[in-house]
Amino acid sequence: MECSVVFAGFGGQGLLFTGQVLARAAIKDGLEVFWIPSYGPEMRGGTADCTVIVADHPIGSPVVDQFDAAVAMNLPSLRKFGPRVTPGGLLIVNTSLVTSQTSARAEINELRLPCTELAARGGDDKLVSIVALGALVGRLGWVTPESVRAALREISAKKRPEIVHTDLGVFEAGLEAGLRVTA
Amino acid sequence: MTEPREIGVDARMTEAEAGRRSRVLMKGNEAIGEAAIQAGCDAYFGYPITPQAELLEWMARRMPELGRVFVQAESELGAINMALGAAATGARVMVSSSSPGISLMAEAMSYMAGSGTPMVLVNVMRAGPGLGGIGPSQSDYFQATKGHGHGDYRVPVLAPASIGEAMELMATAFELAERYRTPVMLVADGILGQAMEPVELRFRNPERHVFDWALTGAAGRPARIIKSIDLQPEVLERRNLALQHKYAEIARQETRFATECMDDAEYVVVAYGTAARVARSAIEKARARGIKAGLFRPITLWPFPTRELARLSRHVHGILTVELSSGQMVEDVRLAVEGRCPVAFHGRMGGMVPTPDEVVGALKALSGKVERTREREREQQQKRHSGLLEDRTGGHRRATEAASRERTQGAEVGVRAGTRGGGER
Amino acid sequence: MTLNPNPELGVRAAAPRLIYRKPDVLADRSTHYCPGCGHGIVHRLLAEVMTELDLPAHTIAVAPVGCAVFAYDYLNVDFVEAPHGRAPAVATGIRRVRPEAFVLTYQGDGDLAAIGTAEIVHAAARGERITTIFVNNGIYGMTGGQMAPTTLIGQRTTSSPLGRDAALMGFPIRITEMLAQLPGVTYAARGSVGDASLIGKLKAMIKRACLVQIEGGGFSIVEALSNCPIGWEMTPQQSLEHLNGPVVEAYPLGVIVDRWVVSQPAGAGSAGAGSAGGEAPAPAAGAGPEA
Lengths: 183, 425, 291
Prior knowledge:
The complex is a heterotrimer of chains A (about 180), B (about 425) and C (about 290). Chain A has about 180 residues and is α/β, with parallel strands linked by helices. Chain A has helices at about 15-30, 75-80, 115-120, 130-140, 145-160, 165-180, and strands spanning about 1-10, 30-35, 45-55, 65-70, 85-95, 110-115. Chain C is of the alpha/beta class and about 290 residues long. Chain C is about 35% helix and about 15% strand. Chain C has helices at about 40-50, 70-75, 85-95, 110-115, 115-125, 165-170, 175-180, 195-215, 230, 235-250, 270-280; strands spanning about 60-65, 80, 100-110, 130-135, 140, 145, 185-190, 220-225, 255-260. In chain C, the strands form two sheets. Chain C has a seven-stranded mixed sheet with strand order 2-1-3-4-8-7-9, with helices on both faces. In chain C, strands 5-6 form a two-stranded antiparallel sheet. The relative contact order of chain C is 0.13.
């Protein structure tokens, strides 16, 4: 098993952080993982994205052409990565920002989620990327939800202990959405 | 991110499994910095440049915490010359930068090589020439292995392919630097610097030695001088000969490489660092399509594993070199192979990274070419010889292949320890 | 060199008195410097000061590129060679890992005021606890007498054969005054090897610069104006006259800045502290921000 996902959107949407949560969860599940950001000036404003590769064997190429899953938190990200989801793969689109546009690809699973609303339901409407992570884990099950919760607790406990509860709440909202909706 | 995490270890879990789960996620730049710290680095000097800025930042935070030396210099020139001064006193010293900054450091590297000053320099390579870009690159291979500064000198160059390996090689770098009194370079690229991977927090702090050359103040002994200058040609030639002798010794003792899937390989991909990881994925894909491919990965770019590659080239059908450059290491590959088999090249530049599919394509092109050549040769032989002779040729080829398989089996990771005639380099 | 009393002549001999002694730290060999060159004098002063302050055993010095590249052959202390202009960076590295060492750079004007400006400025800006002896003879001596950034307007050199023309070649740099602007600089002064009295004052400056470092002050620098008879195409005597005339006019002598506050009560610390300050020439008018 070797799976890749790209988290893409605006700087400030927590995408790099969310990718790290997934990476830590993968370690807890005893998997191999590789996290790589698009770095440099791209980090400032505009789009920010990171790629996470999860595998049960040592990871070779750090560069991914076709993604097994993509999270598009805004329109530029949908345009950039929608076409690069592998046939049969999963595309999560944040409909809080991308209201009408779709990938227009029948051969992939497009999961359309109002991330801001779901995040608000979980406790903080800013944690949109955690919603997407929840949905990704719920739908694809690369890592166990337990490991993601443990990773969230671990990271937040160190940096901002007061938001652990909210992080977990938002993750659950995304997880439910991922499990419930059938594309 | 460095502190070991507490985990609830399942009693049924094997030790290896528990080890895997207790690994820590670390960014390449930070892992390299921490490995240097754990290897006993006394002083770090740096200057900000992408994509290695996190290494400088890591040292800025950690070194003062430990009561060690961190200085952000006014330039890369300043940084490496501070390193020169600190290293001259026998301290364990490290400097890091990325390609354009490394160019500025060439001058002092030459002085340090000439005067025998140990130091570790990390180059997180980015694309050039000039200011170029910040994307990953291996276009400083020539710079690292064939020159850098002026004068007849070499420095050992270590090229890790993963963050874990980079951590291990940092300790090796300090060891080599002190053992041979030479600057040592560790080359990564933007991807290795920026990526995060799970790593075990296993570190090595090489043994400390008392140096009979270090400048500590001439109390109770004659004054010591660390210098590279010698205006008398006869004396300077002797100094150069001593250096070359040292380099021959390093080539004999310290050549490192790794191989994968070589047991039955007919085609070999030669690649290092990030390119080797792409190659690893490509080899899997190629094998699924019927091309028996293996990986030969130099870990020391200098000394280059010339002898091992030469041996390999006698048994395989063809070699493909993959680099994040226009083709630099491939020159050393060709020198090692000496025409014994075809050597092809595939590379990307400017911060682009070849995909596994591209590499598979290049392998297919190479194997196709080799097969066509062999086919042509067979046809020509058929034309020239009788049917009786043709049978014998085919039998000979099969025997050679069987022998080649036997000889390449079992090679996984090698540190050359055997003897080798001097002057090969 | 003591007088040997001769009773036969009936001369009443004075008690033997030591009036000259070569400091041990000065190596027992002749230098490669040209006849009449001032480097030898500066070496000698440095050797005397180091001996008086008991520094040689824990000194780590940095040799430059230029005429003084072989300074390590003449001063018996630990030495490291620096690439051209980089001595202050090299000294910084030494200082940071060897807090107990006495760290010294010895640099010429090509080394310090041209190729090495970034290094000297930033070492000074960091207030690096090192002492720089800066020998300014207004020329690249080692390479055959080319124009330096310190060369005077109108001065002929092998690379300004018609004389330095400010319109084409810019103006001489008073780099010690520039450095003195920086708060990291504890002591900056300019002396000269022009005559015996000036040499005495120069020694006092060097001593104070060294004491600043010993006492834990910041960066200290002494610029020593010197002559280069060969590069200037003059006899040694002419070169001294030139030094004491136009050169000193362009580069005024004196303490440019002295921010050193003696940490210990007078007499309790090093004996040289007070007297060195007293011997130093008065600050040149308008030379430094605190002059």
